[in-house]
Amino acid sequence: MPYRVCFVCTGNICRSPMAESVFRARVAEAGLDGLVEVDSAGTGGWHEGDGADPRTVSVLEAGGYEGGHAARQFHADWFTQLDLVIALDAGHLRALRRLAPTEADAAKVRLLRSYDPSVASASGAGLDVPDPYYGGLDGFEECLEMVEAASPGLLAAVREQVEGRAA
């Protein structure tokens, strides 16, 4: 059974599909295809079925990533199928932990930037990936930089879990 990771932001059209695309590429580069499944969702269903924001797609494609995506809403019953739920900001973290049916499920929820050693702090301050939706392209580019910076640490943590299952 693959290790399953789901990235979650508000509407699932900007930050979480960007994180999904970047992390899926890192998983493939690491040779973990088939061992790790990556997807994304939103805390709300406002954009369900829509593609990613065109600015997200533009920034992803410029970075060499795939931009194909359809938005969907996260549901509490998904926790049983997931190993790790990655929130893009503290508001998502709180919402997901409230939604979690058990303490064990709540413990699966982590902030993406907590995996970036350049910003990770015990207090959790500064760990949000800002929502670029209401700004210009530069906000999407900044979002991509933050996602890329956290991806190696996240990949190392996931690899450790995957290898622990095989042992």
Structural class: alpha/beta
Helix content: 40-55%
Biggest sheet, in brief?
4 strands, parallel
Overall geometry: globular
Q: List unreliable stretches of 5+ residues.
A: none
Mean pLDDT: 94
Strand order of the largest sheet: 2-1-3-4
Give helix and strand order, one letter per element, not per position: EHEHEHHEH
- The total count of strands amounts to 4
Q: So how many helices?
A: 5
Distance between the termini: 14 Å
Radius of gyration: 15 Å
Q: How large is the share of residues in beta strands?
A: 5-15%
How is this structure best summarized?
The protein has 5 helices and 4 strands. The chain is an alpha/beta fold. The mean pLDDT is 94.
Structure description:
This protein has 167 residues and is an alpha/beta fold. Helix content is 41%, strand content 13%. Strands 2-1-3-4 form a four-stranded parallel β-sheet. The longest helix is centred in the last third of the chain and has 30 residues. It is globular. The chain starts with a strand and ends with a helix.
Secondary-structure map:
Layout: E1 3-9, H1 15-29, E2 36-42, H2 54-62, E3 84-87, H3 90-99, H4 103-106, E4 109-111, H5 137-166
Parallel strand pairs: 1-2, 1-3, 3-4
Keywords:
alpha/beta, 5 helices, four-stranded parallel sheet, 41% helix, single chain, 167 residues, 13% strand
